[in-house]
TrEMBL record:
Keyword Transmembrane helix carried by entry: yes
Topology within the bilayer: Multi-pass membrane protein
GO cellular component, one term: plasma membrane
InterPro entries noted in UniProt: Tetraspanin/Peripherin (IPR018499), Tetraspanin_animals (IPR000301), Tetraspanin_CS (IPR018503), Tetraspanin_EC2_sf (IPR008952)
Protein family per UniProt: Belongs to the tetraspanin (TM4SF) family.
Gene: Cd82
Localization (cell): Membrane
Protein's organism: Eudyptes filholi (Southern rockhopper penguin)
Primary location group: membrane
UniProt keywords, alphabetically: Membrane, Transmembrane, Transmembrane helix
Transmembrane intervals: 16-38, 45-68, 188-211
Name this protein carries in UniProt: Tetraspanin
Length: 225
């Protein structure tokens, strides 16, 4: 079984905490923004503006940290995936969600292992079966198209033994597959990020404008002596 420390990563934990914090702040921000706009409360609108600004700064900082720490993050992911592959057991329900997620990645990206199918040679079950089975989610064969998890048997094992080179699997490693997917979809990713940033900036501008209008109305209502 995997120890909890084997499946942990300081960078991934930090990223998860940031996402949780941003999500909680977004919910609070939406509530305060609606309440301040409906009741024309300046302090709530000011707090709404501050929350939006904090979220925008956090997103930019997270993007910069990810970019400059990508090699460290890649190394940590390599360790996590390596431990997952080594201890992968379809019959063991421990860490089931993590295993299903990895099978999904290999199926959708059409990849096998982190650097390649050779990574699966470290799996204890496959080693005990003399490599005459292979991960179904790695398969590039049409007959395995309906199976996306667990291990599949080779049709004709060579002398009762085999190597990863005999498997009908994708040659591409998932590290290269993920990088290729990010490069291919870079325009979409940047477009989405830019769109979110523009919406946040518009929200900040509108909140300031509404706050100023409320201040002007309050000023005109003050009786002159």
């Amino acid at each position: 079984l995997l120890a909890p420390t084997e499946m942990s990563s300081p960078s991934l934990k930090t990223g998860a905490y940031i996402l949780i914090g941003v999500g909680a702040l977004t919910m609070l921000m939406g509530f305060l923004g609606c309440l301040g706009a409906v009741n024309e409360i300046r302090c709530l609108l000011g707090l709404y503006f501050t929350c939006l600004m904090v979220i925008l700064i956090t997103q930019v900082a997270a993007g910069l940290v990810t970019y400059f720490q990508k090699e460290t993050l890649k190394e940590e992911l390599s360790h996590i995936v390596g431990s997952l592959i080594e201890n992968y057991d379809p019959l063991n329900d421990d860490e089931r969600n993590l295993k299903d997620a990895w099978d999904y990645v290999q199926t959708q990206i059409a990849c096998c292992g982190w650097t390649g199918a050779k990574d699966w040679e470290s799996n204890e079950i496959l080693a005990n079966q003399s490599m005459t089975a292979y991960p179904c989610s790695c398969s590039n064969s049409s007959k395995d198209s309906q199976v996306d998890k667990g291990f599949c048997k080779l049709d004709v094992p060579v002398n009762g033994t085999a190597t990863y080179a005999d498997w009908p699997v994708h040659e591409q490693g998932c590290m290269d597959g993920v990088e290729k997917w990010l490069k291919d979809n870079l325009g979409v990713i940047l477009g989405v990020c830019t769109g979110v940033a523009v919406i946040e900036l518009l929200g900040m501008i509108l909140s300031i404008s509404l706050c100023k209008n409320i201040h002007s109305e309050d000023y005109t209502k003050v009786p002159k002596s």
